[in-house]
Write a structure and sequence with these properties.
- The chain is an alpha/beta fold.
- The protein contains 15 helices and 16 strands.
- The strands form four sheets. An eight-stranded parallel β-sheet has the order 4-14-13-12-11-10-6-5. Strands 1-2-3 form a three-stranded antiparallel β-sheet.
- The chain is globular and about 60 Å long.
């Protein structure tokens, strides 16, 4: 298999896992957060900056790269690694969520999904086999199976039908995957918020022997309590010797709570999206740096942060850049938010190694303001 998981330690206090994911482009220390580079770039960030903030792996998206510039062009450039000059691991999402998001412009059939491009309205047809062809061309270390992301809320019958289709598509993806020595295919557990469906989906997905498994269909509108409940009964069904990936989650509380439940990998656009709108995560909670109260505040965004932005610029200056529409403003807030989450994951790994992740959660939640 192209990807292998190494379990190093389990936290005695919580059961959280400390591990390593071995890939063709390097080792990933887990739990880890993956910055999202949807279109072969993490917005506002250069590859050297991603390395400086500690990113071990980044995520790109099959749907968007298929639409523009096209997977064959990326393949000619040497795959995503060569195209974007990134020599560390990459994961490609299959595009299932993006197609799901095009609710008014797509039609799901057993064979695949017919959808209209969000750019020019052109019609396209994604089948599991075609998605595998695209992801093989993109060349990421980890490639996600094509699935149907169920909406929230949905009734049991819809969730069951969707889950069954995702399982059938997964078998087709595995059969169509042509580069198993260099690219690992991960399956995705679905089933909405129904315990019986999630457990069934997990067990049947694991029966399809794969290098790793993801939990999809969460962080789509349900409460954090529901998301945690789903993890509580789904994660135990996943093998201990394979990576576990919770898709689309990136808030600090969700990262900690996911790690406590045995999740190894996370991704989300949240840190860079809110950064471009002038909101940053700090050791004492969220700070909306674009607000007027920071116009004459010459402190760094976070006095405890070691990122380039916090070591060199004040809240007042960054607020000025954002209000003036200067590109540097969004770049600095993006650098900070991504570094903040990489530091958080490092703290989580350290707490697991010291058997105190439960205590760390309590301390972090109080300081961040989650318990107010």
């Amino acid at each position: 298999m192209a990807v292998k998981y190494e379990l190093i330690k389990e936290c005695k206090q919580t059961g959280a896992r400390l591990g390593r994911v071995h890939t063709p482009h390097g080792i990933i220390d887990t739990p880890t957060f993956m910055p999202v580079g949807t279109q072969a770039t993490v917005k506002a960030m250069a590859p050297n900056e991603l390395k400086e903030i500690g990113a071990q792996i980044i995520l790109s998206n099959t749907y968007h790269l298929f639409i523009r510039p096209g997977h064959k062009l990326v393949e000619k450039a040497g795959g995503l690694h060569g195209f974007m000059n990134w020599d560390r691991p990459i994961l490609t999402d299959s595009g299932g969520f993006q197609v799901y998001s095009l609710s008014d412009n797509r039609k799901i059939k057993e064979e695949g999904v017919i959808f209209k491009s969000h750019l020019d309205g052109a019609k396209h047809f994604f089948t599991p086999e075609y998605v595998m062809e695209i992801e093989n061309s993109l060349g990421a270390d980890i490639m996600m199976a094509f699935d149907e992301c169920t909406p929230y809320p949905c009734d049991w019958d819809y969730a069951k039908h969707s889950m069954e289709r995702t399982l059938r598509w997964l078998k087709r993806c595995k059969d169509a995957h042509k580069n198993t020595e260099k690219q690992a295919l991960f399956g995705i557990v679905q089933g909405s918020t129904y315990k019986d469906l999630r457990i069934e989906s997990a067990r049947r997905t694991v029966e399809i022997e794969l290098p790793g498994y993801a939990i999809g269909g969460l962080s789509v509108g349900e409460s954090k309590e529901i998301m945690n409940d789903v993890m509580d009964y789904t994660v135990p069904e996943l093998p201990k010797n394979k990576p576990r990936y919770l898709m689309g989650v990136g808030s600090p509380d969700a990262l900690i709570d996911g790690a406590i439940r045995g999740i190894d990998m996370f991704d989300c656009v949240l840190p860079t999206r809110i950064a471009r709108n002038g909101t940053v995560m700090t050791s004492k909670g969220k700070l909306v740096v674009r607000n007027a109260e920071y116009a004459e505040d010459f402190l760094p965004m976070d006095e405890e942060c070691d990122c380039y932005a916090c070591k060199n610029f004040s809240r007042a200056y960054i607020r000025h850049l954002i209000k003036a529409g200067e590109i540097l403003g969004g770049r600095l807030t993006s650098i900070h938010n991504l570094r903040f989450l990489q530091n958080l994951m490092a703290d989580i790994r350290k707490a697991i190694s010291e058997d105190r992740l439960g205590d760390f959660r309590k301390e972090f939640f109080i300081k961040y303001g989650y318990n107010k």
